[in-house]
Amino acid sequence: MTLPGSTIQDYSKRIEDLAHKLGLDYYPVDFELVPNNFMMEIAVYGLPVRMPHWSFGVRYIHQLIRQGMGHSRIFEVMFPGDPCHAYLVNENTLPENTLVIAHVLGHADFAKNNHLFARFMEMAGGHILEQAAARAHRIDAALEEHGQERVEAVLDAALALEPHIDVNKELHRPLYPLTEAHHEEKPVDAFTKRFQNLPGEKPQSSPHHGTGKPAVPPQPEYDLLWFIANYAPELEGWERDIFLAVREESFYFYPVFACQIMNEGWASYWHARLLREADFLPQDLYLSAIKAHSDVVRPYAGDNQLALAVNPYHLGFSIWEKIIEERGIEAARQICKEEDDFGFIRNYLDTELAEKLELFVYESHNDGGIKIANRDIYAVREAILAPKFNYGAPRVAASKLHVDGSLDLQHDYESDGRGLDVGRAERVLEYISRVWRRPVSLHTIGSNGNPKVVSSKNN
């Protein structure tokens, strides 16, 4: 603990003792109080120290405007790991930071016990802050050696492709076999050997002894960061390192993205319960903290009475409360371990709760009007989950590397269920072509449903 001040230090220690008593199981948490402007930088960059890029500055300005308008307030940022790292705003009140400490412990319990967090932490390691700082240092060295223009061009491409990883593959994966002959020979058992030598049997040609070069990629490759890092014709070592660094951080953050509703709801449930059972808190502090809790988990933003976007705190908290009330805490712990948001919403958001929370699918009109389009539970669930598919990005694969080094990308529009923003796609292709250094084409469909090819201007 690095929290200055005996009062908050005392409360944090006693809240942790209570958390352990109630069965929370988590890696140690290092808390740190920081100024509000530093907290904003952490939230925008995603890490306290990260590779420099102009896009983070744009995000910072947007966040500053939102906060100034009262639409966004950051209470804490927590990084899962061993240990976990949590940052609190030193300008927050004592009740607010007491609540935040309890909230963070809920996050820490979720991160240690959820299967998705555990899998990705095993691959990416539990020391993200130190790793990110080391990568930032290497990129600073590249800036000095190669100049801002060259380094920024590589970062433009890598960060534009930040969501384009294959979460079903391993973080550290081997390259494709160079030729078919590189496949490992399987031992032939005695029976098969006798069968192959029967009179009249033709020897079978082995697929492992072909002379042709296999296609690259051998199947559609959705991990674009990995593919470009390893197969771009003229990529230099430092450029490859940038792509792999962005990819590794994207792997680290995926569980946070894929479990946001579950995770925020679990942390909200536990901060409410810890505060309720913390009989050592003064009454006025407890009441102020509970007021902060109600502000966090309310269904609407500000004073609006129409919920056009889901508050993950409110939705997750409500589902967990229902699960624990009906099934008990041990069943909830098992769900916490096994599910992500997809299973959580589809299996545990039922019609009764959706109606109670007034969840619906809406459509907007050109005149600015809003109309409720659907209250069906299946439509509501899929509307909540739609932005989460494929890390929130269109599903695009590297489909063919041509002899001349040009690259074809294929938009999987059939399973993707959505079209492409052509203007954005063209900008991203330009970024990619600068590092691929050959023409790059993206095959998709147009607004009329007909095939469409978007190409880089390098063609």
Automatic annotation (TrEMBL):
Family matches, as InterPro entries: Spore_V_R, SpoVR_N
Residues in SpoVR protein-like N-terminal domain copies: 7-384
Q: Which residues form the signal peptide?
A: none
Report the Pfam families cross-referenced here. Answer: SpoVR
Supply the name of the protein: SpoVR family protein
Give the originating organism: Keguizhuia sedimenti
